[in-house]
């Protein structure tokens, strides 16, 4: 019995050393197998109990069991020490839990989109339908049907990109007037936002690809006052409640009378002679408008004696310049995401 006790003591001591030296879970597991496994040292020792006198065997069993229990506790402790150390090492190496998380980048609505959306929403609230049409149009829709026959000098004013002799990138959204009136009988009220193209040299005020928003209302008894009311409302919607609108006599083949539309400078309100937004005039040009020409109504089969209507076409980037007090139209298209996000 004392011989067994001695062996057990030696075994336990070696076990404690081995467990303490195990650097990771795999090494610890090897220690477990070597001492407590099915063919490990403890099993060998247990087998030797059979050689002891019968009276000593129960005690020998108890002593071994107690030792095994201590050894198992020792394994658990060593195991959790290893786990803690590995965790600490990982933390130290690659995870700084105090590090701020990375915010996902979110986009913003482009200022030109925003103006288009707000203008369309204003007209929709007043019962207008939003209509979209092709950017490549026959000259019939761009010119002829709008009272600009082939020899008309106004064609020269629209420096267009031609695809064939008769097909071109639309230089304005006015073709949508014709398309709408051909498809529907009066009364009609539509707003047509979209892209337009002109052979213009790019500078602070011009792009060769830009947007317009077109409006058209045709019914019985429509007069210029209706146009003035709607456009005043549009400017207040886009620029603020104290805006006013001014009409300057002008000429467009598809309207009679025709007018160019200005709104009070949103930057200086007309109060600064040195304002760089309006050049001191106090007014910002928005685009053209007028009463739909009888020839245009006639072309689409409407009776000019019975129906009258107004129309307008504004440059959306121009509206954007005024609304966001931007000094150069190119800033809308040069993909400076930070600049664009700032406006929204
Ligand atoms: N389409 C014209 C242009 O691009 C603008 C315009 C003027 C549109 C008068 C209209 C209008 O609807 O009535 O220069």
Cα radius of gyration in angstroms: 43 Å
Strand order of the largest sheet: 1-4-5-9-8-7-6
Shape: rod-shaped
What's the mean pLDDT score?
93
Q: What class do helices, strands and sheet pairing give?
A: alpha+beta
Q: Key terms for this structure?
A:
19% strand; 9 strands; seven-stranded mixed β-sheet; 43% helix; 344 residues; binds 3,4-dihydroxyphenylalanine; 12 helices; BirA Bifunctional Protein, domain 2; alpha+beta
Question: How would you portray this structure in words?
Answer:
With 344 residues, this protein is an alpha+beta fold. The protein has two domains: 2-92, no CATH class; 111-343, BirA Bifunctional Protein, domain 2 (2-Layer Sandwich), CATH 3.30.930. 43% of the residues lie in helices and 19% in strands. The chain has twelve helices and nine strands. It has helices at 2-21, 25-36, 41-47, 57-94, 111-125, 139-142, 154-157, 175-183, 224-239, 294-299, 316-324, 337-343; strands at 129-130, 136-138, 167-169, 188-197, 209-219, 245-252, 255-264, 283-292, 308-315. It has a seven-stranded mixed sheet, with helices on both faces. A two-stranded antiparallel sheet has the order 2-3. Strand 6 (245-252) and strand 7 form a beta hairpin. The radius of gyration is 43 Å and the shape is rod-shaped. The N and C termini lie far apart (89 Å). The mean pLDDT is 93. 3,4-dihydroxyphenylalanine binds at residues 172, 174, 214, 252, 255, 287-290, 311-313.
